[in-house]
Amino acid sequence: MDYVTFSLPPLPVFIKGAESIFPKGKRHFRRTFTVFDLLYVKQGCLYMTENGREFTVGGGQYLLLIPGREHYGHRPCERETELVWLHFLLPDYTVVSDCPASRQTVMEKEATYTEPIQYRLSIRQYGELKQRERAEQLLAQLIEPNVERDIDRPLRQLLLFVEFLWHLQKQELPVPSAAEQVSAAAVAYIERHFSEPITLEMLAKKLRFHPDYITRCMQKTIGMGFSHYLTYYRLSKAKQWLAETNETVEAVAKRVGIDDGAYFSRVFKKMEGMTPTEYRRMARRT
Question: H or E stretch including 123?
């Protein structure tokens, strides 16, 4: 199965969408399009071919037709078929085989003070819409005609389209296992309290799990135990503040929960291969 992967931001470009009805005996015409064309069948069935590959798109299913690939209906509809089509552009995308997203990979980078959060979405080319009622509600809002020529409408359509793409992405994410849920709770706790003198025992008490079990879950899911991830996260925040502020090394150390400036510098050099001051100089040269 092919997946379309792309970064977000930048935002996709929504062009146009509408509802169509294919009567019995009609088939989709042949063309090679320059934009993405998403077909969602509400009822009936479409028989589509793209680059020689056949798809049967039944009620509740969608097909994402990719720019530059010839597509056409290889067989007429056997009964009246109601569908929604959406045309859009993605500024930067790739098409890959068998590349489903996971909860660990969909967020590529967290936001800083100067850079936005970065997602990497991976949308299945062909599949079934889950939570169909909500998805069809989004589509109905998205293709609603702008009869009053409201200048706000195109912007609202773009936001609805991004929400629809996120709906497609979320339905592909696997339900987290018990270990993943424990690990996610531990990570969230660390990221909320990293500036405080927290310990594994405090975390265990909060989550009501044995410390060894939490460690095993974190190692299995993110490859780091409590202490390692706490240090990693503290240093990631320290690097951000070293690059973006004029605070002293000691002040940055205290902000990330390390009161001993000398100890902070030793740990920083061990983990990053340079002192905090050297890192600040390097970050400001780039």
Answer: strand 118-124
Least confident of 106-115, 122-131, 152-161, 225-234: 106-115
Cis peptide before 10, with omega less than 30 degrees from 0? Answer: yes
* Phi then psi dihedrals of residue 20, to 5 deg: -135, 155
How far is the C-alpha of 48 from the C-alpha of 72, rounded, in Å?
A: 6
Amino acid identity of 207?
L
pTM surpassing 0.70?
Answer: no
Domains in the chain and their CATH numbers? 2-170 (2.60.120.280), 178-285 (1.10.10.60)
CA distance 36 to 22: 20
Token duo for residue 24: 């019995």
* ∠ Cα 224 214 110 (to 5°): 50
Count of Cβ atoms closer than 10 Å to residue 131 Cβ = 12
> How many C-beta atoms lie closer than 10 Å to residue 65's C-beta?
24
Residues whose CB falls within 8 Å of the CB of residue 285, separated by 6 or more in sequence, listed in order? none
